Amino acid sequence: MSSWFGAWLEGLSAWPLFLFICAFFIAVTWIGIVAVHPFLRRMIHGDEPSNEVIIHSAGVFGMSYAVLLGLLSIATFDSTRSLVNTVASESSDLSTLYRTADGYPEPLRGELKGLLQDYTRYVIDKDWPAHRRGLVLQGGEHRLQVLRQTLFAYEPTTKTLVELQPWASGC
């Protein structure tokens, strides 16, 4: 597959890609019916009218594609479910971190909440659209690194604040 064709396919959204794939397989089927069927019939049966081999071949061909379509559907469903679970887990972790920031004194509390909000907005507004285009941006990781450095630089003064530290509880 040439690079421009691959780039063109990757640029299609779900519905145009679905329509393209359907049109491709319909075209392959019609080419088989119009071009290959008469040739195979003459090659196998000569002039005698018999469609047994063609019917059997078409059945095997159709069954193969039905199984392939079923397996692709299952794989797509599994990938989607895995993605939904990953997003739910990350959003839950962010929510927990945001609520945990309430236990820190100011100005650290405001800084942590601001960093978490910035990271969340970046992921939603920049990372996800870039992922749809097949790009991986590094801005989210940089924002998390700043958040880690801010947390690791803080020296807790009470036992409660020590318990709030993520690395103290094994997280």
In terms of topology, how is this protein built?
Elements: H1 3-11, H2 14-45, H3 52-100, H4 108-132, H5 139-153, H6 159-164
Task: Tell me what the structure shows.
It is a single chain. With 171 residues, the chain is mainly α. The chain has a domain of 90 residues. Helix content is 80%, strand content 0%. It contains six helices and no strands. Helix 4 runs antiparallel to helix 5. The chain is rod-shaped and about 95 Å long. The two termini are 45 Å apart. The mean pLDDT is 82.
Main sheet makeup: none
Low-pLDDT runs of 5+ residues are none
How does the helix and strand content classify structurally? mainly alpha
Number of strands: 0
Helix count from the secondary structure assignment: 6
Rg calculated over all Cα atoms: 28 Å
Strand content: under 5%
Fraction of helical residues:
over 70%
In short:
This protein has 171 residues and is mainly alpha-helical. It has helices at residues 3-11, 14-45, 52-100, 108-132, 139-153, 159-164.
Name a few traits of the molecule.
single chain, 171 residues, mainly alpha, 6 helices
